[in-house]
Design a protein that fits this description.
alpha/beta; 19 helices
């Protein structure tokens, strides 16, 4: 039998194998550093926040069938691939209104962000600033446009608008966003009425949270979340300070069932910068908006939080790109939980993707550090996929393309 030749132990070699980095005593920081997927961050988030908060982020409308379909559709995308290309340098940057960002991934507008973590919107925008990305602030945010601009003055900021039933209220919010240096306006149009989110209804979600008997037990299980709630500024909607009723009642007051294409024309007169219309779910509406001269559209079903069983954005993306892709920018959102999901959308012709749940899981798991980790994972997977498919820039990604495989 062949045997290994034995030598005296090489102490220098053994010494070089030891990782001399001091272990961290911060268990949360350690857990975050070990996360390898957004799903890992979601599991950590579930341990950190009350059930009502986690359900608000994870849940969608009615039977949540649409969300499952969107996830399945994204995972059904098959990437075309080229070989024998020099991918030693990969450029994942994209231009938005004359300025470059490092990834075609945008922080989507999400409401009630300080409900997930007490710093909220400024923590997310700070990560966007450090990573040269764009952050979108929601009308339903817990930080006002002026407050966000003061907290992260150098971040690129877009503002998401719900056209309210009282148009004067909308104008006041638009004015503040303009004066606070927000460069683009995202008009959300898929909320003529509020979707039916059964998890939130069963949990009795309100802003601020009501103190019930069940809340007492929730405090015992998640004490740090509640301590942060009680020891920081009042949790409320920045645009609707003083509101103390349920989210359903608030939505009924804000969302306008009379919203129409005429409101887009009205907004074009009131806002002189770029306008992106979010919530488009058909080729026909995309064509109408292209004729109106808006700068972009977001193919979106609101993360399936409005209409259950509605169109899946990734499935209509190729047809919309074919119809209007040369006339305006096409963005997409919904169920993007990895860099490969983002790559799938870009390969099928999107300008960029908007992510919401992905960064909120990071925020709930570990605050600003958790959001940073989410970006790290999205970037890692996106750039790795670019290299493995032989694409050195986003133009090549779109030229190489992808295929939507049929799902059963």
């Amino acid at each position: 039998m062949i045997k290994s030749k034995r030598n005296f132990p090489n102490l220098r070699y053994f010494y070089g194998l030891i990782e001399w980095k001091l272990p961290t005593l911060n268990r949360r920081k350690l857990a975050t550093s070990k996360a390898q997927t957004i799903e890992d961050l979601a599991l950590l988030a579930k341990k950190r926040v009350p059930k009502v908060v986690y359900d608000f982020v994870e849940g969608s409308a009615l039977d949540e069938i649409g969300y499952s379909r969107s996830q399945l559709a994204l995972r059904s995308v098959e990437f075309n691939s080229r070989t024998l290309r020099d991918v030693s340098t990969v450029d994942s940057s994209e231009m938005f209104f004359g300025k470059k960002v490092d990834l075609p991934i945008i922080f989507a507008p999400t409401g009630y962000t300080r409900l997930m973590q007490h710093v909220g919107e400024p923590a997310v925008a700070a990560v966007a600033e450090r990573n040269n990305l764009i952050y979108c602030l929601s009308t339903m945010g817990t930080t006002s446009p002026a407050e966000l601009a003061a907290a992260v003055p150098d971040a690129r900021r877009w503002f998401q608008l719900y056209v309210m039933q009282n148009r004067t209220d909308s104008l006041a919010v638009i004015k503040q966003a303009r004066e606070s240096g927000f460069e683009a306006l995202i008009l959300t149009v898929d909320t003529p009425v509020s979707g039916l989110r059964l998890r939130d209804l069963r949990n009795g979600l309100t802003i601020p949270p009501r103190i019930r008997l069940s809340t007492v037990f929730a405090i015992a299980r998640k004490p740090m979340w509640w301590i942060n709630l009680f020891t920081t500024k009042k949790l409320e909607f920045a645009a609707f300070r003083g509101w103390d009723k349920s989210l359903v009642e608030l939505a009924a007051t804000i969302f306008s069932p009379a919203l129409s294409f005429d409101d887009v024309k009205w907004l074009q007169k009131e806002w002189k910068g770029p306008i992106i219309v979010k919530g488009i779910q058909s080729v026909e509406d995309a064509k109408l908006l292209a004729k109106m001269g808006v700068q972009g559209i977001v193919l979106s079903n609101h993360g399936n939080r409005q209409l259950d069983r509605g169109p899946v954005p990734i499935e209509i993306l190729p047809d919309v790109v074919k119809a209007v892709g040369k006339k305006l920018d096409i963005y997409i959102d919904g169920s993007v939980m990895s860099g490969q999901d983002a790559y799938a959308a870009i390969a099928l012709g999107a300008k960029a993707v908007l992510v919401g749940r992905a960064y909120l899981y990071g925020l709930m798991a570990d605050g600003e550090r958790g959001v940073e980790k989410a970006v790290e994972l999205l970037r890692r997977d996106f750039i790795n996929t670019m290299a493995l498919t032989g694409n050195r820039n986003l133009k090549e990604v779109r030229e190489t393309g992808a295929v939507l495989r049929k799902t059963s």
